[in-house]
Amino acid sequence: MAVAAPKYFARERQINIEAARCDISNLQVALDAFRQDVGHYPTATDGLGALLTCPAANATGWKGPYIAQLPADPWGKAYIYVQPGTNGRTYDIISCGPDGVLGSADDLTN
What distance, in Å, lies between the first and last C-alpha atoms of the chain? Predict the structure, then answer.
């Protein structure tokens, strides 16, 4: 058991990281569909909720919902949407990763 447990937890961590990457990719597809219909990405104030419910302002052409539900990351936390994004990106979608702390080395982003 002492040998198997570390391998199991390492594999579980990798599976969760891949699941978060998949969620982020799916959210990107939904955001791109929103942009195609509305002409811009949701604002930071609108957040990812704009994929489910039409924002009150500046969303002419909205044809959503663009996703069935907003996923939580594999560690049970909400994905963070930042618009505009960093490093020249239009937006960032962030999972705080296993430690749940924004800005740490295990964060995952688009």
Answer: 37
The larger pLDDT score, comparing residue 27 to residue 87, is at 27
Say if residue 95 is exposed, middle or buried (CB neighbours under 10 Å; 0-12, 13-18, 19+). Answer: buried
- Give the contacts of 16 (CB within 8 A, at least 6 positions apart): 74, 75, 98
User: Residue 27: which H helix or E strand, with range?
Assistant: helix 4-38
- CATH of residue 32: 3.30.700.10
Residue pLDDT, tens place only, 97-110? 999 999 999 999 99
CA separation for the pair 103, 108 (Å, rounded)? 10
Q: Which domain holds residue 99?
A: 4-109
Report the number of distinct structural domains present in the chain.
Answer: 1
Return the SS3 of 90.
coil
CA-based max dimension of the chain: 58
